[in-house]
């Protein structure tokens, strides 16, 4: 008889108030991959999605009644929210581990946070932590546990466990290279209704997530890659389109978030993908993440547009070249501007990730970043403060300044956790000011368009232009508060 596995994850949407309010959740992609892999290996898999539940207690009844052999917490390493290692989710994972242990299950966990803090997870009830890329490790470990061969367990790479009270960590497992060999996520197990309801309410359409690559070869010194590492491996365009056709048949989605760290880095990949999308008859819009220095070739931007790309998020990070160089970002300010303009030429919306508070950042550097945003006016901005995560050069630089609290509680906390030019309250206020200032400049741009092209006036443009009456006073108020914070620091 095959062993019974209860498979879940530890991202509870309600525990992240900002994301709960935004209400644009994505299914736990990596968890659905694990379901497919385990089913192929003959395990009896029950998938329980905790995304919309009230908390860990929701799993208790299933654990008690299911008589499971294994309880596996398998977090979505493709989603930046899980990579943030939020303490709300860590505490939830600890509680899940203890509940499962109480029912006699063997408890296994794979997550960015557990990879970085395996000792804590082992002492909170996990029997095994899967370190790094877990797709091959998980079935190998379960097979070894089924055989009751402890010697075989010791030989498995990519795990951590307790032996006589001490944490043992085996050598790392090599990353997977041939990604087309991995089965598609088990989309059939997903209850799409709550995702569909949330997206339809917040955006009016259904968006789903897909990964086409693993890893990132670039060396930004603040970016942690605990699961998929610094290498870059890609699925074939044919394999990706095949899965898209399946997802379209199952869910009739309208939008896709390609959640790769870097989309389409492999030469010729984007053009092949665009050609296959045309041949398939698929119609959908999508957003990706990329880098300014990879968005400089007009033929590839044109191919992105033809395939349906509507939004590209790039890590602009800073308007100061000094700060970009300190981050080992590997891009230049002219590249950011050129990429932004080229995307706009093909009606693709450029969006910026912005990071404040990197060590050494001055008032002048902050002003340069604000000026860059005002001048280039990206479609959206995502603002963060520098966040030290284990395994990065940046973390090693500031770890002596980290106290007991080294992670944010939720994604909106935005706390500065090391000593910097200004105190944490300044960066919180800076976040508010930059957003209001950005919206003010968007409104100013709409006013200019109305004046220069009155024939193109429509209600949307008028509304945007009119928003200056709302945002301009707010921006002035937030700027006044920011100057007070600066004076007090």
Work out the strand percent. 5-15%
Quickly name the level 1 CATH class of one domain.
Answer: Alpha Beta
Averaged pLDDT: 95
Q: Terminal Cα separation, in Å?
A: 66 Å
The total count of strands amounts to 15
Q: Catalogue the unreliable spans.
A: none
Q: In this structure, how is the largest beta sheet organized?
A: 7 strands, mixed
CATH 4th-level superfamily of one domain: Cobalamin-binding domain
Explain briefly what this protein structure is.
The chain contains 20 helices and 15 strands. The chain is an alpha/beta fold and 489 residues long. Strands 2-1-3-4-5-6-7 form a seven-stranded mixed sheet, with helices on both faces.
Description of the structure:
With 489 residues, this protein is of the alpha/beta class. The protein is 44% helix and 15% strand. It has helices at residues 17-22, 29-40, 60-66, 80-83, 87-102, 112-116, 118-123, 137-146, 150-154, 193-202, 237-251, 269-280, 298-307, 321-326, 333-345, 363-376, 393-398, 424-452, 459-466, 468-488, and strands at 4-8, 44-47, 70-74, 106-110, 128-130, 159-163, 166-169, 207-210, 213-214, 233-234, 255-258, 285-290, 309-317, 349-356, 381-385. It has a 7-stranded mixed beta sheet with strand order 2-1-3-4-5-6-7, with helices on both faces. It has a 6-stranded parallel beta sheet with strand order 8-11-12-13-14-15. It is globular.
Question: Which properties best describe this structure?
Answer:
alpha/beta, 20 helices, six-stranded parallel sheet, about 500 residues
């Amino acid at each position: 008889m095959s062993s019974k596995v209860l498979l879940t994850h530890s991202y509870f949407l309600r525990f992240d108030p900002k994301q709960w309010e935004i209400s644009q959740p994505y299914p736990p992609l990596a968890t659905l991959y694990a379901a497919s892999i385990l089913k192929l290996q003959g395990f009896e898999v029950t998938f329980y999605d905790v995304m919309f539940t009230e908390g860990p207690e929701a799993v208790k009844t299933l654990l008690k009644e299911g008589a499971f052999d294994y309880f596996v917490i398998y977090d979505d390493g493709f989603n930046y929210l899980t990579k943030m290692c939020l303490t709300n989710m860590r505490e939830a994972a600890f509680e899940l581990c203890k509940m499962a242990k109480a029912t006699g299950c063997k408890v296994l966990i794979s997550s960015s946070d557990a990879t970085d803090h395996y000792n804590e997870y082992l002492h909170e009830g996990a029997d095994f932590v899967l370190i790094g890329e877990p797709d091959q490790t998980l079935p190998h470990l379960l097979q070894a546990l089924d055989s009751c061969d402890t010697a075989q367990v010791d030989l498995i790479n990519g795990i951590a466990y307790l032996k006589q009270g001490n944490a043992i960590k085996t050598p790392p497992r090599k990353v997977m290279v041939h990604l087309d060999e991995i089965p598609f996520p088990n989309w059939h197990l997903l209850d799409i209704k709550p995702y569909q309801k949330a997206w339809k309410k917040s955006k009016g359409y259904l968006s789903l997530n897909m990964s086409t690559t693993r890893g990132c070869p670039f060396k930004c010194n603040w970016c942690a890659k605990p699961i998929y590492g610094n290498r870059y491996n890609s699925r074939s365009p044919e394999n990706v389109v095949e899965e898209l056709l399946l997802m379209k048949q199952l869910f009739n989605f309208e939008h896709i978030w390609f959640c790769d760290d870097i989309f389409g880095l492999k030469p010729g990949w984007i053009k092949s993908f665009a050609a296959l999308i045309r041949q398939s008859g698929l119609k959908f819009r999508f957003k990706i993440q990329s880098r300014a220095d990879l968005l400089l070739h007009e033929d590839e931007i044109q191919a992105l547009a033809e395939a349906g790309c509507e939004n590209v998020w790039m890590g602009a990070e800073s308007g100061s070249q000094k700060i970009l160089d300190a981050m080992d970002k590997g891009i230049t300010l002219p590249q950011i501007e050129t990429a932004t303009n080229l995307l706009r030429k093909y009606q693709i919306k450029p969006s910026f990730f912005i990071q404040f508070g990197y060590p050494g950042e001055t008032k002048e550097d902050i002003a340069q970043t604000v000026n860059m945003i005002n001048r280039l006016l990206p479609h959206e901005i995502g603002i963060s403060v520098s966040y030290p995560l284990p395994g990065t050069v940046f973390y090693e630089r500031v770890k002596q300044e980290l106290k007991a609290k080294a992670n944010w509680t939720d994604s909106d906390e935005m706390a500065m956790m090391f000593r910097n030019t200004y105190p944490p309250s300044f960066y919180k206020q800076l976040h508010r000011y930059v957003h209001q200032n950005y919206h003010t400049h968007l409104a100013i741009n709409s006013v200019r368009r109305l004046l220069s092209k009155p024939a193109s006036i429509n209600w949307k443009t008028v509304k945007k232009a009119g928003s200056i009456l709302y945002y301009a006073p707010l921006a002035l108020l937030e700027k006044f508060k920011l100057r007070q914070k600066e004076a007090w620091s």
